[in-house]
Specification:
Blueprint (H helix, E strand, L loop, with lengths): L3 E14 L2 E7 L12 E5 L11 E4 L2 E3 L4 E7 L3 H7 L6 E8 L5 H5 L4 E6 L6 H10 L5 E6 L16 E5 L6 E2 L13 E5 L2 H14 L3 E4 L15 E4 L2 E4 L6 E3 H4 L3
Bound molecules: FE2/S2 (inorganic) cluster.
The site of FE2/S2 (inorganic) cluster has 12 residues, from loops.
Length: 256
């Protein structure tokens, strides 16, 4: 796998919700621009410091003109707490881009596209929507959050309709994002979020015969396909989420 590992400078860090941070770093390798759905291994601490493992974080956005590489992440452990302590001007180790993302150009040629996200799983969908839009297809966006949504305004230039649900009913539809989705209106559905949400999206798609791709998450050690620590079982045999994925055909990874 062709990846770059380097010290990247932090350009900014901001808070989007109580436990959600937006981190922008300067990606110095113009020969390896990240694609939608790919991720980087992030490390803001020395190799001999804990936690042992770097953190896999998906690409939220990338500006090829400036090299600004944006991540959205949830602060939920020692590693992400150390990422959250980074200030502009600090440096961190960034390794990537890792994994197989979405082929936006091929997908955009299929017809209408629905992009479905849940919670922090919406993070990689911004670059996906941007890439689809640049390839000539403005997708419709369906997103679900527990309570208050974040970063939705960033999607507006790149999407057709945007439909929102919340578990609490604070904003948008009170219920599941899958209540809003009608797969029969689309050539393909692309999803990223909690497993239960992606399985629900897949089942709706399967009922209508609509193709569905999902971006999977798993615990990762190397992020490069070397340790097999992120292997998942698929209908076509074991596959690594980090190298073979994280994007898979939904029918390979979920049962009906
Ligand atoms: Fe090592 Fe995927 S994390 S093979």
């Amino acid at each position: 796998m062709n990846v770059t590992s380097c010290n990247a400078k932090v350009l900014s860090q901001s808070t989007l919700a109580p436990d959600i941070r937006k981190l922008v770093v300067a990606w110095p390798d113009a020969s390896r621009p990240p694609h939608a759905g790919q991720f980087f291994m992030l490390r803001a601490w020395a190799m001999d410091e804990k936690p042992v493992l770097s953190r896999p974080i998906s690409v939220n956005d990338f500006d090829p003109d400036t090299g600004a590489l944006t991540f959205l992440y949830q602060v939920k452990g020692e590693g992400t707490a150390k990422l959250a302590a980074l200030k502009p001007g600090d440096t961190m180790t960034v390794t990537g881009p890792c994994g197989n993302g979405f082929d936006a150009a091929a997908l955009a040629s299929l017809g209408r596209i629905a992009v479905v996200g849940g919670g922090i799983g919406t993070a990689p969908l911004l670059l996906l929507c941007k890439s689809l839009c640049a390839a000539g297809c403005k997708p419709d966006l369906f997103v679900g959050f527990r309570d208050q949504p974040y970063n939705l305004e960033a999607f507006q230039p790149y999407c057709g309709k945007i439909q929102l649900s919340t578990d609490t009913g604070a904003v948008g539809h009170h219920g599941l994002v899958t209540d809003l989705l009608r797969p029969q209106e689309y050539a393909v559905v692309l999803a990223c979020g909690p497993g239960v949400m992606m399985r629900g999206v897949y089942r709706l798609c399967a009922e209508q015969g609509t193709p569905c791709l999902v971006s999977m998450e798993n615990k990762m050690a190397c992020g490069l396909g070397a340790c097999l620590g992120c292997t998942c079982h698929t209908k076509v045999g074991p596959k690594t989420v980090c190298k073979d994925g994280p994007v898979f055909k939904a029918e390979e990874v979920f049962d009906l």
